[in-house]
Amino acid sequence: MTLEPAALFSFARKSTELPKFLPAAGVLHICIIAGKTDFTCAGRPLTLTAPGYAIITSAAMCTELKDSADFQGIYMLLSPRTIGLLHLRSTYGTIGHLALTADPRLKLTAAEAERCYADLTRLCERSQLTSHHYLQDMLLSLLAAHVLDLYDLHQRHGVLPDLSSGKGQLLQRFITLLEEGHYRQERSLKFYADKLFISPHYLSELCRALTGKSAGYWIERYTLQALILELTDTSRTLGQIADRFNFSTAAYFTRFFKQRCGLTPSAFRRRRRQL
Fold it and tell me: Parallel, antiparallel, or unpaired for β 52-56 and 27-34?
């Protein structure tokens, strides 16, 4: 099935042109060549300054976007279907996801940011060529080239773990457990260490050696990301969310969230409604 360009991705020249609520499963790219933009990602206030690029892997976690008066850049919002259609043959996925979860920002040179900006502008312009007989394939090819360039830039500028060793494979198995959603019921180091047949201390030191962060950090990051997405669904009460994540009480859930995000779950919901 061929999708319309709008079902693949959408573009904006400033944050105010983006949807009020970003889709949970979408991926938001921000390329900036002048000025800055402030935003909150998974409860953390961040600033992206030019020249730079940011990739928020779960768009709904990005809130309170505010561009500076001299901002010049472009936003690209990818749909879940687009990501599934790319089919990139690369082992970068786990590495990149870990790095972007820790910090979604890429610091680029001016020339690199200009090239990324030109790539996104071209994608935006070519998505308007609705008479093109191979529009979807053409757009996906351009997008794939851009994403592979981002992989290359991220590896050039970031300190990323080598997952080819035995330790790297253990890390991948740990992250797989998190991606399977075990953190909804189990957040103790012992649970994950037992699954991997290693000690909790070794698991934490392994994560710290390969990613610069402890195993506990990654368990909390995955938990917080999922909680933030749950809180965007106002059909569930805080008590129901606490139960879904195996918190003993709603009060404990509130304490857990506030200590890590700086505001209570109910305050987070109120702020999001005001956006």
Answer: antiparallel
Could you tell me the pTM of the whole model?
0.76
CATH of domain 5-157: 2.60.120.280
- Cα separation, 180 vs 262, whole angstroms: 27
Span 30-52, pLDDT tens digits: 999 999 999 988 778 999 999 99
Crossing angle (nearest 10°) for helices 135-157 and 110-126: 170
CA pair distance 69, 66, nearest whole angstrom: 9
How far apart, in whole angstroms, are the C-alpha atoms of residue 221 and residue 237? Answer: 22
Sheet containing 62-67: order of strands:
44-49, 36-41, 62-67
The C-alpha atoms of residue 156 and residue 159 are separated, in whole angstroms, by: 8
Is the domain 166-274 a CATH 2.60.40.1120 member? no
Q: How far apart are the two ends of the chain, measured CA to CA in Å?
A: 35
Q: What is the pLDDT of residues 1-12, one digit of tens each?
A: 444 666 778 899
Phi, psi angle pair for 266, to nearest 5°: -65, -40
The ranges assigned to domains in the chain are: 5-157, 166-274
Q: Which two tokens stand for residue 133?
A: 């007989």
Which among 141, 150, 139 is positioned nearest to 53, based on CA atoms?
Answer: 150
Angle at 84 between CA 80 and CA 85, to 5 degrees: 115
Rounded CA separation 236/194 (Å): 33
Q: Which residues of 179-196 are buried (b: 16+ CB within 10 A; e: fewer)?
A: eeebbeeebebeebbeeb
Segments in the chain forming alpha helices (H): 5-8, 80-86, 92-102, 110-126, 135-157, 166-179, 189-196, 200-211, 215-231, 238-244, 250-261, 265-274
The contacts of residue 10 (CB under 8 Å, 6+ apart) are 76, 77
